[in-house]
Amino acid sequence: MSIPILIATRDVVEYLRDGRLLWTGALILALLATALAVGWQRQTEARAERVAAAKLDYDDWLQQPERHPHDAAHQGMHVFKPEPALSIVEPGLIPYTGSTLWLQAHRQSEVKFRPANDATGLQRFGTLSAAWILQMLVPLLVIVLGFNALAGERERGTLRQVLSLGVSPRQLLWGKALAIAMSVALVLLPAVVLAVISVLAAVEDGSRLDAALRLGWMGLAYALYLGIFICLVLAVSARAGSSRTALIGLLALWVAMSVVAPRLVADLSRSVYPSASRSEFNKKLDAELNVEYQRAWNEQVGEGTAFGTDVPLSQWGIGLKVHDHAGYAVMDRHFNALWESYSNQQAMQEWIGFLVPIITVRAFSMGITGTDFSQHRAFSTAAEHHRRLMQDIISQDLVEHADGHGESHFEYLAERSLWATVPPFAYEAPKAMEAARQNFRSLLILAAGLVLAVSLMLAATPRRVVA
Asked: Where are the alpha helices (DSSP H) in 203-309?
C-alpha cells in the first residue's frame, strides 16, 4: 500500500473518532435527503399541474364556438414550460423565470407566474436544493475536516516525526488530500444513490440515458469544484501558523467566495453589460413597433392611419397580416438584445469564476440540468414561433373568407374546424450532449481553477512543512 493511501486511511479513521466526520457528515446527508425529497415533491406536483393545464387550455381552444377568428386570436392560448428531470437536484432559475406564457394576438409576451414572487426574504439566500447544499455547505465540511490537516500536525509536534520516517512533504500532502476526498465521498455517496434513483424514476424510459448523462456531467463538475476547495484548504493549513488561524482564514475565505463575491460579480456584470428595465424595454419596443407598423401599412396597404375609419373592411384581414409581420423583426431585435445582455453578463461571471469557482459551478450545474437562462430563452423562442404560426393561420383565414364579405367583415364566423388547424404546442429541450457542449466553457474554467488550486497547494506546502 502506498504512503499517501496509508496516510489517508489513518486520517479518515481519526475523523471518525473525533466526531467531525460523523456529526457534520450526518447533518449534510440529512439536509441532502430532505432537499431531494422536497425537490421530488415539487417537481411531481409541478409536472402534473402543467400537463393538466396544457391539456385543458388546448381543449378550451378547440371547443370555441363559431366566432370571428380575430376574437379567437385575442383569446389566444397558454403554453407551459416542461419541468426538467434534474430540477429535483438543481431547480436553477425555475423559481425566477416563471412557467406559463400567453400566446396572444399582436404581441410577444413574457413568461408569467414566478414562484419567487411569492417567496419570503429568505429566498435571497438561495433555494434549499441538493445543488445549493453542494455549492455552499459541502465546502464547509471540507474546511471542518482539513483546517488542521498540516497546521495541527505542526502544533502536535508529529510533523517532524512523520517526515523523519522518510515520508516526503508531497506524499504527506497527497495523503491528506485523499483523506478529505474519501471522507466527502463517504458522506455524499448515499445522497448520490438517492439522487440517481429519484431522477431516473421520474423520467420516461426513453429519456433515462439522457438523464444519466446529465448526472454524470454534473458529478464531474462538482468533483472539480470540491477538488478546488480541498486544495485551497490544504494550502491555507500549510501556510497558517496555527489551526485557529487556519480555521479563521478559511471561514473568511468561504464567506468571501460563496456569499460576498457572487453578489459583487453579478453587480459588476450588470454595470458592464446593462440590461433595460421592464418599463424601459416596453417603452422602446412600443415606440419602434408603432413606427414599423405605420411604415409597413403605408407600403403594403395604403396611405393613412392604420385601421382608421377610412380603411374599407375588405382590407382588414390583409391589414392584420401586414401588421403582425411588420412587428416580428422589431420584437426579435429587442428581445434578442435583451437576452444577449443577460448572456454577456453570464459569460463575464463565468470567466471571473476562475477565481470564484462557485459562480462557474453554479452556471454549469444549471446549464447541464436545463434550468438556466439559455433553456428559458429557447423555450420562449419556441413559444413565440408557435404564436406566430397561430397568427398566420388566423390572418390567412380572414384574408380568404372575411375580407370578401366587405362591410360584413365582422359578421364572419369561422367554423370550429379552423381551431384544430393550430397544432398543440410541443417543446423539446436540447439533449444532454448538446447541453454539455453549450456549457463546456464552464467545465474548462473549473478544470483550470483546479490546476491553479493544485499549484497553490504545492507551492505553499514545501516551504512550511519542512519548517
From this structure: 208-239, 243-255, 261-272, 278-300
The distance from CA 231 to its chain's CA centroid, rounded to whole angstroms, is 27
According to DSSP, residue 112 is labeled B
Q: What are phi and psi of 106, to 5 degrees?
A: 75, -20
- Give strand pairing partners of 263: none
For residues 434 and 432, give the distance between their C-alpha atoms in angstroms, rounded to a whole number: 5
Distances (CA, A) of 242 to 142, 239, 262: 18, 9, 29
Residue 385 burial (C-beta neighbours within 10 Å; 0-12, 13-18, 19+)? exposed
**Nearest in space to 42 (alpha carbons), one of 119, 110, 137:** 119
Q: How many other C-beta atoms are found inside a 10 Å radius of the C-beta of residue 122?
A: 9
CA distance linking residue 419 with residue 81, whole number of Å: 22
Integer Rg of the chain from CA: 29
3-state class (DSSP) for residue 80: strand
* Type of residue at 7: I
> Could you tell me the three cell numbers for 184?
466527502
Mean pLDDT (whole number) for 116-128: 52
- DSSP-derived 3-state class of residue 100: strand
The whole-angstrom separation of Cα 313 and Cα 402 is 9
State which H helix or E strand residue 28 sits in.
Answer: helix 20-62
List the grid coordinates of 137: 455547505
Mean pLDDT over 45-73 rounds to 89
Measured between alpha carbons, how far is 334 from 302 in angstroms, rounded to an integer? 27
pTM tops 0.85, yes or no:
yes
Q: How confident is the model at residue 121 (pLDDT cuts 50, 70, 90)?
A: very low
Give the per-residue SS3 of 400-446: HHHHHHHHHHHHCCECHHHHHHCCCCCCCCCCHHHHHHHCHHHHHHH
In this predicted structure, which of 14-23, 106-115, 315-324 has the lowest mean pLDDT? 106-115
Length of the chain in residues, anyone?
467
Amino acid at 430: P
Residues 6+ apart with CB under 8 A from 83: 43, 46, 47, 50, 94
Q: What is the spatial distance between Cα 397 and Cα 401, in angstroms, rounded to a whole number?
A: 6
CA 208/CA 416 separation, integer angstroms: 40
Query: Exposed (0-12), middle (13-18) or buried (19+): which is 212, by Cβ within 10 Å?
Result: middle
Q: What is the DSSP letter of 304?
A: S
Do the beta carbons of residue 195 and residue 215 sit within 8 Å?
yes
